[in-house]
Amino acid sequence: MGRVLTLRQCADNAIRRLLSEYPDGEARWMVRIIFEKLKGWNRTEMMIRADQEISPYIAGKVDEITRRLLDQEPIQYILGEARFYGLTLNVTPDVLIPRPETEELVDMIVADAHGRSDLRVMDLCTGSGCIAIALARNLPFAEVTAVDISAKALEVAAGNATLTKTTIHFRNADVLSLPRPDKADMDIIVSNPPYIAESERTAMDPNVLDHEPSLALFVPDSDPLKFYRAISSYSRLALRPGGRLYFEINPLFAPQLRSMLEADGWTEITVTPDMQRKQRFISATAPAE
After folding, report:
1. FRET partner for 210 with CA separation of 20 to 30 A, picked from 97, 204, 244, 278?
2. Which pLDDT belongs to residue 289?
3. 117 DSSP 8-state letter
4. Looking at 125-263, which runs of residues are DSSP E strands?
């Protein structure tokens, strides 16, 4: 039988082990997140309870999670949840972990749509549903449709919609071959599609490469804009005149993507940097016809 540990001893042990693979700040953050998940204790409560003994069960769970983190498994998959736009969403290895950059995309759309309500919105390649749910909760009375090719991803997204008490219309379809829409009645179409070139694999961290779904990450070097091309063609038919198209993009392909959208007849094309000053987003307006 192992010795009984205080919270401080257990946390310090986990931090010390994690420092072999992670920076100090990240290691401490992860340990705080672990205890928040296991016990519901925030940072202040952990300080107050520092000398309190913890159960062997909790000590064992902390040890198990620490070992998985040392194997480069993302903490969001281990704990089964991720934060996005003020929400806690469920995530599994069937969906990408929502990124802070994608929150910036939602910010952009919400700002552009300020003062408007009853918008019809479509999120293509929805994954966990994070964009669709954030928009449905922040655009007044929006009608939101979310599309993904992965049935397992849609299960996660639907669960997140239920969890957040958000109404989303989900559709299982391949965005590369969407049928022609019956009419142009969408106000906003947004997508964060696969955009990492296969040749970029070698520069990626193991926690992404070994655990997140390749289907949602990679495009062939020979055709890195394949998803953007298909979504652009569909959106020209689905958006009302003046409707807006938004993409998260690979900064490497921003010039080519702008040229492609210009050739497709889009207007008001704008490339916007993220907080790291990388060319991360592009938006465009459907022309009046």
Report:
1. 278
2. 67
3. -
4. 143-148, 169-172, 186-191, 196-197, 218-219, 239-248
